[in-house]
Amino acid sequence: MIYLDNAATTYPKPEIVYKELDRANRNAFNTGRGSYKPAREASIIKENVRKKILELNNINKGNVVFTSSATSSLNDIIFGINLKKGDCVYVSPFEHNSIIRPLEELKKRIQITIKVLPFNNKTWKLDIEKTKDLFILNNPAAIFISQVSNVTGYLLPYNEVFELGKTYNSINILDASQGYGIVKINDYSNINYIVFAGHKSLYASFGVAGYIKLKDDIIKPNIFGGTGSDTMNPNMPCSFPEGYEAGSPNIVAISSLNVSIDWLNQVKVFEHESNLTMYLIEQLSSIKGVNVYAPDDLSKIFGVVSFSVDKYTSEDVGKILDEEFDICVRTGFHCAPLIHEFIGSLEYGGTVRVGLNYFNNKDDIDTLINALNSL
User: Fold this and answer.
1) Could you tell me the fold of the domain covering 2-11+268-373?
2) Exposed end of the chain (fewer CB within 10 Å): N or C?
3) Helix pair angle (70-78, 97-110), 10° resolution
4) Which of the following CATH numbers is that of domain 15-264: 3.40.50.1010, 3.40.640.10, 1.25.40.340, 3.40.50.150?
């Protein structure tokens, strides 16, 4: 099997992750709930991972909150940042349903306004002048942008938008689910929250994700229950991170993240994936009838490449690649409802998406290209 669906979850994981999952599953104890040695050791692992998450991006000050998924993290943020009736929220056309759907639900509840940032669908560049005009007419209360598009691998210019938004005191949320730990965030001065997903670019298991709170703005908790602290208080504590991690944490998944970060610090994942991404685009572009969805500046694509094939739906291509060549790709709309009109892939039923990782190589891409040439 050739696995090319790493934008959904990285596979395989580093061997050290599998070993740690086995160890943790056999020796899992609840953190923050006991004073005995194994429970204390589990708590130490959890706190160490918080520090490692920050160190991955040289963040000096921030609160890391663990959740079960990036979707859960974004729900916590969207329903916790106290948006009010009439507030205007901005998203890019590249955003995932883990942002779009909670915002639409909030729109039903309190009548916020949701606007899409103006990107040119030919060059994919942000129209900064139009953005300035939009912000003057409708001041941004919050801005949501992905670091890396889960459909196209596009590296979005979030710094430009966040810097402009801060002149209106916007709350800026960076969805780094697709790239955290690999794609560096060079400037986080205008970011309020960064969302990460353990099972993707961090090469850990399912069940651990979270967000980093970088500013002093207030967020309301959305889940209420036991935290292992301040037990006699019937109200949820407001301290970070304890007041935002109700229930028993997934220490097994957190333990996998503990060792996967160590592994990430020892290998050159970004360089390897960048080279493979360029090679894949080059090879796909050489096939007649294959349409690659990419901006003018190919250096802005990382790790994920989407394409379509003339006379085939994306689902048909994926089925052929699976059944005849044992190649795993993702097909369809990829939980991103706005992007397909933007890039023009609706007529193909979405795109065929190739997600690369550190364990892929040029032979995998050559096998894919040979398969596509046979269509």
Assistant:
1) Aspartate Aminotransferase, domain 1 (3.90.1150)
2) N
3) 30
4) 3.40.640.10
CATH 3.90.1150.10 residue spans of the chain: 2-11+268-373
67 contacts 209 by C-beta, under 8 angstroms: yes
Residue pair 281/365 in contact (Cβ under 8 Å)? The answer is no
Largest CA distance in the chain: 69
Asked if 262 and 16 count as a contact pair (C-beta separation under 8 A), the reply is yes
Query: What pTM value is reported for the model?
Result: 0.96
64 residue type, one letter: V
Strands across the sheet containing 209-213: 63-67, 209-213, 193-197, 171-175, 140-146, 88-91, 113-116
| Distance of alpha carbon 146 from alpha carbon 191, whole angstroms | 12
